[in-house]
Amino acid sequence: MKRNNDLQILNIGGQDILVPLGAKVADLNGIIVLNPTGRYIWELLAESHSEDDLTAAVVDYFDVETERARSDVQAFVAEIAKWEGIEA
What we know:
This protein is α+β, with helices and mostly antiparallel strands. It has helices at 24-27, 36-44, 51-62, 66-82; strands at 2-3, 7-12, 15-20, 32-34, 86-87.
């Protein structure tokens, strides 16, 4: 999976916020506020990665248990997928 260019990160008041661009603005209601894990995963998705790749990267970067990292990756990807922000 890889992110598409219909969403962009803006830093507003010290918060990283994922916002829709172009035609997506009219289609979507809301924004996604990124925590450090979400921001890291989003950055990784600039390149194509599997869920396992993302999980391993989160484990290494944040020094967390694999199941916790997998849960975080799955939740983030599911949220972004609602916005069609991920390409398979």
